[in-house]
Design goal:
heterodimer; A: alpha+beta; 9 helices; 30% strand; B: alpha/beta; seven-stranded mixed sheet; globular
Chain lengths: 311, 361
């Protein structure tokens, strides 16, 4: 049963009692929530994800709650707390900001408990079984490019994490709503009028945030990983010509290692994975000003390069 | 969860819901890495579902990073103190790792604790400052609190690596009612084979220190881990025939029978640590051992906080036990007048901090 096949009332009932369990790529999330607008968000933006029903034959990776604080604070400037295994990691958000709180909370949960993967701060998409990774710092245009590529038929693996599995030598898929910030919201709205966007959440710590629904194809194929093939560091620079250049291997190594959240935690494995990647992938830098030009460069790149399979 | 730590063979047989609970309780008790090491040693990891194994591998990578950090940090401290010719006595986690004790496998380490002689402190502090360690607590009250009353210097933090270093001169605050002669710890410290310039406390002292730390320091968030440390130490040193006969006499000389009594009692009662009956009886009958009332109360409180409960929330009884033990550890730490003045200072600072921040917001 998919989340989208349940009515919002059913979702609300389950969230308020024993909670809902669903899979997001390699992870199983268990969420209990008593927040009015959240079932609607879940229904639309996780609609294609499979619900798991009891009896559970596997553990859940993350036990999460979204609850308003007890007592009178329920009525005066109502807030919502995010907890992972009963621990609050964030200061509470306003009650109607439950969706960004959940998304960032889940990111934090994944980042803190996935040290069996090498974790890149990157968007990852797939074309013909090959992965295009866009590692980026905030403001580099990573999410905007990622959203546009998904809307043009690339399969979304992840907007936030490159989850690289050292054993399978692949990126794992973790397709979730893409978080668009500030200017990029209108850019994507203009780019594709069919795109399904959430309401805007103003005044968050990252400015205004809005979520884009992941494509159904991406969610249906979430069990399939992809082989790292192209690594492109995007760099949005106003009034500069669009330019895609190959990076020297030494630079590629340092930039990739610095991009991985847990490079040091992974020890020798981290070094070996990054080494294998710079050997087998084309590592490039994309400076861009206009979205369409950047997309055409990436289309050409992902069609021309012969994929190499790392051994 | 305690059953799994005693009989790891049972873990793969448990259903998913029970395994989930054990993982969550272990994580909360800072014992997930330890669980992985125990299961790996028994060759049980391959019998687990991938999802369960992944959580354990993730924890393993984290504790391995801790261990690398610790080893490197010891190397850096040795380098900073190289010209002084002083030996460095490693305490707690650092000692367990450098002695390569089985219980150090998978045990997380947050910072490095060393024991040095107070007469060398000016020299040591100058060397550390020169090599990039800075004061982690700059507030004048904190500085005075540590220097006048505590068993360690104010904590240092390395400017680049952000790792913390605690330099102790004894194992229990100067203001505490129990006052062991710290020279005894220093004079019986032992060289670590294969690591010139590094020492650890003698085995008996290491057990006594772990007991003091657990039952007198008030760090009960890591209570179960502390008890498992003691279980690991006792089980390991029990292999040495000279260990048991020396333990109680040593605690008597140091005036630390009371914490040792609790350590032996609770290891035996909650973890089934193999402690000779004669030792338990002797500790029990010692005139310095706690009285009846203290025993009954401690039995209730310690059992309460050592038993991992619902991982989603702290139960009221656990909270109450935790709070009472916290108050007790402060009570033991300093005389009442000083305690009141200390809490007032801390409270005022927190209040001022809150007020200031509210203005900014």
């Amino acid at each position: 049963m998919k989340i989208g096949q349940q009515s919002q009332q059913e979702l609300r009932r389950h969230l308020g009692s024993q909670g809902l369990r669903w899979s997001v790529g390699p992870f199983i999330v268990h969420l209990r929530a008593k927040v009015p607008n959240f079932p609607q968000f879940l229904h639309t933006f996780y609609g294609e994800n499979l619900l798991l029903s009891p009896p559970w034959d596997d553990i859940a990776d993350f036990h999460l709650t979204l609850h308003p604080p007890p007592g009178l604070r329920r009525f005066w400037r109502p807030k919502v707390h995010f907890r992972l295994d009963g621990n609050a990691f964030f200061t509470p958000f306003p009650l109607d900001h439950a969706p960004p709180l959940f998304e960032w909370g889940l990111n934090m949960a994944i980042a803190s408990r996935s040290n069996h993967y090498l974790l890149f701060h990157a968007a990852v998409l797939e074309k013909n079984g090959n992965a295009l990774m866009l590692p980026g710092t905030p403001g580099s245009g990573k999410s905007t490019l990622c959203a546009a590529l998904m809307l043009r038929g690339f399969r979304l693996l992840s907007d936030e994490f490159g989850l690289y599995c050292p054993q399978q030598k692949r990126f794992m898929a973790n397709p979730r709503p893409i978080g668009l910030k500030n200017e990029s919201i209108d850019i994507i709205r203009a780019f594709d009028s069919q795109a399904i966007l959430s309401q805007e959440f103003p005044n968050t710590r990252k400015g205004t945030v809005c979520y884009l629904q992941p494509s159904a194809e991406s969610v249906h194929n979430a069990h399939n990983g992809a082989i790292p093939t192209w690594i492109v560091f995007p760099s949005f620079q106003e009034s500069q010509p669009t330019y895609l250049e190959t990076l020297p291997q030494a630079t590629s190594f340092l930039r990739l290692a610095a991009n991985a959240f847990n490079y040091e935690t992974m020890g020798a494995t981290g070094f070996e994975c990054v080494h294998a990647m710079i050997q087998s992938c084309s590592v490039m830098q994309l400076r861009f000003d206009r979205l369409e030009e950047a997309l055409s460069q990436l289309h050409t790149l992902t069609q021309s390069t012969q994929p190499t399979v790392p051994t | 969860m305690l059953q799994v730590f005693q009989q790891p063979e049972r873990f793969p047989e448990l259903d998913a819901v029970s395994q989930d609970l054990v993982l969550r309780q272990s994580r909360r008790a800072h014992l997930l890495g330890r669980l992985e090491a125990i299961l790996r040693e028994k060759g049980l990891l391959d019998r687990l579902k991938p999802r369960v194994r992944n959580h354990l591998i993730s924890a393993r990578n984290l504790v391995r990073e801790d261990r690398r950090m610790l080893t490197w940090e010891v190397n850096r401290v040795q380098r900073a103190l190289w010209n002084t010719g002083l030996d460095i006595i490693l305490l707690k986690g650092g000692a367990y790792v450098f002695l390569d004790l089985p219980m150090a496998q998978g045990r997380p380490v947050a910072d490095l604790d060393i024991l040095m002689e107070p007469k060398d402190f000016p020299l040591i502090e100058a060397c550390m400052a020169q090599h990039g360690w800075e004061q982690a607590k700059l507030h004048p009250y904190d500085q005075r609190y540590y220097r006048e009353w505590m068993h360690e210097l104010p904590p240092l933090r390395h400017r680049v690596r952000m790792t913390e270093l605690d330099i102790h001169h004894t194992i229990i605050p100067k203001t505490s009612r129990l006052q062991p002669d710290s020279r005894l710890f220093l004079s019986s410290a032992q060289k670590i084979p294969g690591h010139p310039g590094l020492k650890t406390l003698a085995p008996t002292d290491m057990v006594i220190h772990a007991a003091v730390h657990l039952f007198y320091d008030g760090d009960f968030d890591k209570g179960l881990r502390g008890l498992l440390d003691l279980d690991g130490l006792l089980s390991h040193w029990a292999l040495d025939a000279t260990f048991w006969p020396q333990l109680l006499p040593r605690a008597r000389v140091l005036n630390l029978i009371r914490p040792l009594y609790y350590a032996l009692h609770f290891c035996h009662r909650l973890l089934g640590t193999p402690i000779p009956e004669t030792i338990l009886a002797e500790a029990n009958a010692d005139p310095q051992a706690p009285g009846m009332v203290a025993r009954v109360v401690m039995n209730q409180l310690i059992a309460r906080i050592m038993t991992p409960g619902n991982p989603d929330r702290l139960e009221f009884t656990s909270w109450l036990a935790w709070s009472l033990l916290y108050i007790r550890s402060h009570w033991l730490r300093m005389p009442p007048r000083m305690l009141i003045s200390h809490l007032t200072q801390k409270g005022l600072r927190r209040w001022r901090f809150d007020v200031r921040n509210r203005r900014i917001v």
